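ERR on first pass: missing label on line 2. Operator R.T. fixed the label and resubmitted. Corrected input:
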Amino acid sequence: MFKKFTPSTDIAGQTPPKSSVQRSIRAAVLQQWKIGPETLEEIWPKKETLIHVKCREHISIYSVQSVPLFFQHFDGPFYPTLRLLHQYPSILPKVGIDRGAIRFLLAGAPMMCPGLTSAGGYLPPSEEALPKGTAVAVHAEGKEHAVGIGITELSTEDMRKLNKDVAVEVVTHLGDDLWALQTL
Amino acid sequence: MSSSDQQEPQAVRPLEVLYCQICTFPPEYCEFGSSLTRCKEWLQGAHSQLFDKYYSDEALQSKIGTLSLEAQAKLEKDSAKKEAKAEAKADAALKKKMASQVSIKRIERNKRKHVTAIHGLEAFDIELKKAAKFLAQKFATGASVTKNAQGQDEIVVQGDVSDDVLELIEGGAGPLKGVPADNVVIIEEKKKKAVE
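pass 2 clean. output:
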């Protein structure tokens, strides 16, 4: 999603949304992420106004004090930026990829099932299975921090069963243009 | 989810994450970047403990993990190649930067009035908008960033200030830092006769 992103041409405008819209965004974030209202308050204090940065192809980045915090594609789920995820690693469910897949991920490729089901990969156990279309933090074998953020294309159970094709579509990863964008 | 919220009403403290000063990745991912050698140097100097953690022999051994030896060798070769490539690219970019010119053009408006167009500053990582504002303030005139006939951005300052601008650029004042004086040329352009 952010493989090619140049702020000067791809940003259409920055506006603060209405406070009612901000309220609904806050509610949606609380519902979608594993995060308490207090923690969200730390990240995004009530007094700070959110800035909606409109970008091409229906991407909206939301920033507080010109630091991008989370983004959304069309009406999809909210994704935190990778820097925010590094600070609060618990807000998204985790999946892990093996070492061989890291360099493909860093090139922006979607993650295939075998990379997650192999010995180095990690999938949540069956009782915590994730449905299709969940935002996940992609961790890497032997690494402490997340390497990317993606959305599941299959439920985790199906990943185990089919073990073929795309499992996680990567929306942002280390070193992409959103990562390079430290302030807006 | 809601139950855990009730148990811990305090906010979760954010994790302090160290990022590499060279490639901006967390240091554990430097090996996948394109500047591993320099990243290593930086880490060794700034955080020697972490350096030992990531690059000691045991760490390197365990890192291989589930990967076969061949795949590991290939990965290493790839990363070396990538690094060389990135270096070559950076070199080429620098060379291009050094070769690019900044032109200060004096354009005649009517007999006694001129504007000064400064072109090519963006090659030296100067923010044109800021530079224009700076010049406007300096000379107390209008200055703006406009597109010229070729569609490239340039700064247009009202009045004939070409010599002063040259001085400022050479002196590296304010936002106009980092332009070598040899790369700046002054051009004078007479107003073309209107075609009847």
